[in-house]
Amino acid sequence: MKSILLFAALSILLSGCASNTTLSGRYLSNLDPNIDIAKSASILVRSNKEGDSLTNRRYIPDVIQALTQLGFTNVAAQMTAPDYILVVNFTSKQENLQQTVPVFTRHRGTPYVICHQNKNNNRVCTTHYHYNAPIVSGYRSITTSTNLHTFEFTLYDQQDTPILEVTSNVVDEDCSQWKIYKFLAADAIARINFSTPVDTQYSVTMPEDYSCQQ
Questions:
Q1: Are 14 and 22 in contact (CB under 8 A)?
Q2: At what angle do helices 177-190 and 53-69 cross, to 10 degrees?
Q3: Which end of the chain is more exposed for a tag (fewer CB within 10 A), N or C?
Q4: What is the mean pLDDT of the segment spanning 69-91?
Q5: What pLDDT, on the 0 to 100 scale, is given for residue 101?
Q6: Computed from CA positions of residues 178, 79, 50, 156, in that sequence, does the dihedral angle turn out positive or negative?
Q7: Exposed, middle or buried by CB within 10 Å (0-12, 13-18, 19+), for 75?
């Protein structure tokens, strides 16, 4: 978790220099080595019974659309005797990230004098100082508050055996969780790899007109 937050903190800092919103996080998946799902297989998408049903149901259509874009032709929120069941869950929580940052100081160096004549023809002199380059005089700890938005889903076969598990998240400072959930529903499904487990940190630059605010 610490590595996720550190990666996100750096991404937030870098994205602040650009006009486009950048969403950063981690994608982690595990799967049955014998998984083999036909594109025509029937897949029921439903909310995790232990999760926030109201929130999960809101984004099920986005999950279904993302699966359809992967080529699956028989995906729905209601069906009888499906070949597979995809259980989804969206959650958010606040995290505090502690960082140690350097404290810089600048010391006065060699003085120099600048003189000029004023309007009364009097000579006026002022003393100035060359300042040395900033040096590290110590360190201090700062705490940054971030939001961790997570989309978890598990695919079960007809024997109720899990064959694919995915956790995808985004760390941000001030985005709407609803906008992030919508992003995760599409992005996490699009990243599904049915061949090998995945553990990757990612950063996505959104279109110029995109806002992560409500």
A1: yes
A2: 40
A3: C
A4: 97
A5: 77
A6: negative
A7: buried
CA distances from 196 to 34, 43, 165, 193 (A): 10, 21, 12, 6
Give all domains of the chain, ordered by start, each with its CATH number. Answer: 2-104+142-205 (3.30.160)
Q: How much is the CA Rg of the chain, to the nearest whole Å?
A: 27
pLDDT value for 96 = 76
Closest CA to 164 of 30, 64, 45: 30
Distance CA 43, CA 86 (A): 7
The pLDDT of residue 133 is above 60: yes
Q: What is the phi/psi pair of residue 143, to 5°? A: -115, 125
Residues in CB range of 188: below 8 A, 6 or more apart: 27, 151, 153, 166, 168
Read off the tokens for 198.
Answer: 């995945």
- Could you give the CA distance from residue 138 to residue 105 in angstroms, rounded to a whole number? 9
Q: β-strands 123-131, 108-117: how paired?
A: antiparallel
What's the mean pLDDT when you consider all of the chain? Answer: 87
pTM: 0.72
Answer for the pair 88, 47: CB distance below 8 angstroms, yes or no.
yes
Report residue 129 CA to chain centroid gap: 46
Tokens for 46?
A: 């439903």
